Amino acid sequence: MGREAEGFTGRTAVVTGGAQGIGAAVVRRLCAEGCRVLIYDKSPEHAAATRDRLRAQGYSVVVATGDVSDQEAVRAAFASVPADWAPPTLLVNCAAGFVFEGLAATADQWHAVLDPTIIGLSLVTQAFQAGLPERDADAAVVNIASISAHVAQDGFLTYNTSKAAVLGFTRCAAQELAPRGIRVNSVSPGTVWNDGNERYHREVLGLDRAAAEAAPEHGGKFLLRRFADPAEVAAPIAFLLSRDASFITGVDLPVDGGYLAV
Ligand SMILES: NC(=O)c1ccc[n+]([C@@H]2O[C@H](COP(=O)([O-])OP(=O)(O)OC[C@H]3O[C@@H](n4cnc5c(N)ncnc54)[C@H](O)[C@@H]3O)[C@@H](O)[C@H]2O)c1
What we know:
Elements: H1 3-6, E1 12-16, H2 21-32, E2 36-41, H3 44-55, E3 61-65, H4 71-79, E4 90-93, H5 107-130, E5 139-144, H6 157-177, E6 182-189, H7 195-203, H8 209-214, H9 230-241, E7 252-255
Parallel strand pairs: 1-2, 1-4, 2-3, 4-5, 5-6, 6-7
Helix pairs in contact: 2-9, 4-5, 5-6
The structure holds nicotinamide-adenine-dinucleotide (NAD).
């Protein structure tokens, strides 16, 4: 089984947005590597379903429900880590705001995207580092940016601006936390075939996965001519969290089927 079996044995991770999509795949991957995981998500139903599915496989998963932009709820979530677990030394920030608007965006729309993606990211990272030692923390954070952080996309001004800010946050947090032995990196996924994208392609575009991947403007825009499965994003996140990445901090890793290469 190799390193997947034992990579994070005895360690604790917090995964925001871990109830669904990429976050749920990260939780599953970390559990498979021996980690205990606290899911922090605003959807109690989906979080409980993911927790129950993984517990049925023998994994250690707990849930704290709340919004990442709610400072008190974030503090309570970190305080709820079971006393017999190691303190969290791994953090994956998946929760984000999904608002796709251009210059016409209202202040409310900006809050809807920036509150979770940037303010929430900051509050969760702040609570995480507060529980770590001042030196040699041996800890790692991975944030989720996007290919949208790197390019302009028509009608995506709000989302792309928020994801570009994730790159800036990652670099600055890496600088601030490096003296304490805390690494901070990000990944930039291309389109991931999760429930939301499946629904969008089916209901809005009338395309199933095979048809969407065959279309030049959808799956065809990736060099690999397809979308990613959530597990294909979880694997490089696990690498960046792992001690195999011990000299990597402040970088963004595209996980994009070659989209940003051309
Ligand atoms: N799916 C893609 O194609 C894709 C591509 C690039 C980047 N991303 C990024 O990956 C991350 C995960 O996306 P996904 O597609 O897996 O999403 P998803 O919608 O499948 O899951 C997101 C999870 O985050 C939770 N969440 C949302 N807002 C929250 C908040 N304010 N507080 C707490 N929890 C919250 C939701 O309840 C949900 O469980 C996001 O940062 C997204 O921007 C996704």
